[in-house]
Amino acid sequence: MTPPDRPWQLATADHMLRFQPGGRLLQVTFDHLKPHRGRDGLPEPWGWRFALQNGWSILGIASLRPLWFREAALHQALLRLRDAGFFRGFDRVVFAGSSKGGFGALVFSSLSPGATVIAIDPQSTLDRALVPWETRYPLGDWAPPFRDAAEELATAARIWLLHDPHFDPDRRHADRLAAPGLTLLRCRHLGHGLAESLQKAEILAPVMRGFTEGTLDEAGFWALYRARRKLVRYPRALFAQALARGHFRLAERMARALAEQREDGHWFLARAALFEAAAGDLAAFLRGLALMQRADR
Predict the structure, then answer these.
(1) Which of 29-43, 46-60, 230-244, 281-295: highest mean pLDDT?
(2) pLDDT, tens digit, 9 for 90 and up, residues 13-57
(3) Buried b (16+ CB within 10 A) or exposed e, 235-263
(4) Which of 65, 92, 186, 208 has its CA 20 to 30 A from that of 1?
(5) Which helix (H) or strand (E) holds 280?
(6) What are phi and psi of 69, to 5 degrees?
């Protein structure tokens, strides 16, 4: 079966689907924000230009409202594509998304048995009967189908799920999931919003490319993930954890070491002084406060 060779676009009341043919690899992306428009004036879902640059076909699905892809018309459109053999026309199908989009990637992966899934800090469901502890988001309609990622993963060949286990809601969603092909990549100390952090560390592109094309394994991911150390967000999380546990001297030593390694060393030097002060040195506290005020001007 040959893949489709013509672009198309479909709009429902709350979602937009846009397809662009490329190679025999199809990436299906789920955008949890209203997509921006490209130079041609058409909306570009998450990962659109990246897929085209890599020579892949892409089906971008964008939610125009924060519905977690719960619209019946969207479900019907995707089921029609499945039944028409759309996904079978490709050699490799990859579902990808972040946060709400990560939920979409997980829950719709059953449309194409044997697919790969890349889900970055996703929710598994918002059905309060299943996750009564999830109170961050509005409820909406969570009747079947496609209500729970835990029910949809059995046919996926490989599932890469990235999350921070120290961020409790994301950990609890990840803990609900089980499948033969599931690999949990525990990206500690970066919180929710991992895709943005990986992009700032300049590794989102090689991670997405490697997992999409099947050229990146778990060891390769962790080698790339070392770049997190350049992010201010990462040591800040380490400091917060050290302070929460009362390890003031450890936090101080970490901050002083980073002050010597980084261009923004003054930020860490100020924190080192404050950490020292937290252990009981008032003079160090005053020095740190002065450094912080100077740095913030």
Answers:
(1) 46-60
(2) 999 999 999 999 999 999 876 656 666 667 788 999 999 999 999
(3) bebbbeebbeeebbebbbebbbebbeeee
(4) 208
(5) none
(6) 60, 40
